[in-house]
Design a protein that fits this description.
Length: 119
């Protein structure tokens, strides 16, 4: 979603889906294994992970239980991802072009990217 100031905010369902997929893969588990424990279809869990479905709180709780995650930790990770995705970035430029992109601060801002020139 693009805000009025031109910055981009990802949808919560995309962030949550990516976090669930990362947790599942970190555990070395398949979609089918987690879906069975969470008592849902593999296809539905796949759509949640891809950010195509907006999961209910009951679905999130079931998937978190199946992955042995606390819902509060999932929400905290989603918050951190949202902050990181919306904060301004500093681009360090040299005579050969951009050399790195790093976060300037942890709070979202309405300003656009800040460009710093390096000697």
């Amino acid at each position: 979603m693009t805000r009025s100031d031109g910055t981009h905010e990802p949808l919560l369902r995309h962030l949550v889906g990516a976090l669930l997929r990362r947790a599942r893969r970190r555990q070395g588990r398949t979609l089918q294994e987690v879906a069975e424990v969470a008592r849902m279809s593999t296809a539905y869990l796949s759509e949640v992970e891809r950010g195509r479905k907006e999961p209910s709180s009951e679905v999130l709780a079931a998937v978190c239980r199946a992955l042995d995650l606390r819902l509060v930790d999932l929400v905290a990770d989603a918050h951190a991802s949202l902050v990181a995705a919306t904060e301004p970035r500093v681009r360090v430029l040299t005579s050969t072009g951009p050399t790195s992109v790093q976060h300037l601060r942890s709070a979202p801002s309405t300003t656009s990217d800040v460009v710093a020139l390096a000697a």
